[in-house]
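Incident log entry.

Two folding requests arrived from the same account within the same minute. Monitoring flagged them as a possible duplicate submission, but the sequences differ. Recording both here for audit purposes.

Request one:
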Amino acid sequence: MTRITCVHQGFELYGSDRSFIETVRLIRAACPTAWIDVVLPRTGPIVAPLEAVASRVVIEPLWILRRRTLPRLATIGLLTLPFAVGRALGRIRSSDLVYVNTSVVADYLLAARVCAGRSIVHVHEIPEGAVLKALKALIRWSGCDIIFNSRATERAFAMPPQVRARVVYNGIADPGRTKPMTYDGSRPLRLLMLGRISRIKGQDVLVEAIDRLPAEIRARIEVRIVGSAFEDAERERALVAAIARAGLSDRVKLHPFVADPAPHFLWADVVTVPSSLPESLGRVAIEAMAYGIPPVVSDIGGLPEIVEQGRNGWVVPPGRADLLAETLTGIVRLPASWCSYPAAARERYRTVFCEAAASQAMIAQLRLILDNPGGALVHT
């Protein structure tokens, strides 16, 4: 029996978690008789949907490189690293294929070098500075095959030509429901921001942009910010305080993380992804387009690979609340100027980012390991 191990660093149901679930579903569809172990660092909302497709979900410690935990990992955490690498090595040796979701799962990347040709790492992040250098070195040392989720991610990691790598955009499941253009200026524009509250996502930029709007435009917009901070209640409190200080509590409403964001998407006219730091791709923007909702995204990382400015959405410079406010003002005042965007957004999703578009390329890369261990990926 073919044995496949899929490793993920998360346990929630944010974008990277949902992408992992969809990849495991893809692997199950391609290998219906395989034994598939999913390894997670702890239990959480992600477990239930994985149990529907995996043979077994295993909860065990992983050595995960996160900014918040780096000081601990560099000291007392080093004592646990040999045990973590040993566990990972045991699983790799007993597997025909090991799929490691993201480059921060250090124990599996370290162990992969011992069993060459069995592991593939799917890179979903664009770190900066010393973290980027460390992850690049770790991936190269591991000898893993690589899937990058965008051209921007591939450029950031800048692997030499001999490294076996390929870009495959994330495939997003079709929600089966689309949202026709209903905004004509006669009611407030419904603007949605969905995602983890963090320094990367730009919730603070959005709040500042709404504060900068002319009073008559601010009165014609309703904003939902949906999400929670990752083990950082202080960041959530700071966002609440910033909204209150700006006098925007009647315009900007915070909603907690939800496992199923469909009701929020169906409420929205426009979705915004005002990221301040590079997003490797931008799942929320793609999900919005799947519903036929045009997104406003930052011109950073992989986001401009999703949106075609002036055709199916808007692209603004990152961190520029003034220019985001200017774009939102035009959206509110001139709905006729973007009446074609919803249909164009849906078409962009259907042709580039749907599951069918991604699945063939993804499975082809995994098959190169299953059918020919150690075989080279095509570099594109």
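Request two (distinct sequence, not a duplicate):
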Amino acid sequence: MEFRFRTADFSDAAILAEFNCRLAWETEQRQLDRDLVLAGVQGGLQRYPEVRYFVAETDELVIGQLMLTREWSDWRNGWMIWLQSVYVQSNCRRRKVFQRLLQFATTVVQQEDNPVCLRLYVEHNNAAAQECYRNLGFRDAGYLVMEQPLRPAAH
């Protein structure tokens, strides 16, 4: 099976939102509001270059995605890139789709932003994802992610 990789565009919004809903269910058993997620994806697509979606496809069907967001680091005088919204359809997993998609996206971002690092957060109990990321060269950065809600959580 041949895979192609590209930057996502507005025509991909519905499948990106669908994959995000599947991701939330598979990893956290959370049922997301699909309309809210679609609006969020569309908002992200409008925020280039701070937000970028990349997709993997075969036979013109999107089978995987990831989102990269950037954060300025004054300590490092450069962009830190955050990896988010990673999803590959179950029937395409274990075929290096994610690894190759990440490599493609990282190459694009390195050429455009010259970032200092790539970061992500992962659920404490998601051992499979943690192993996958370690195998790709990620390591514990020594930080605990904390948050303070500023508006009611969407259900």
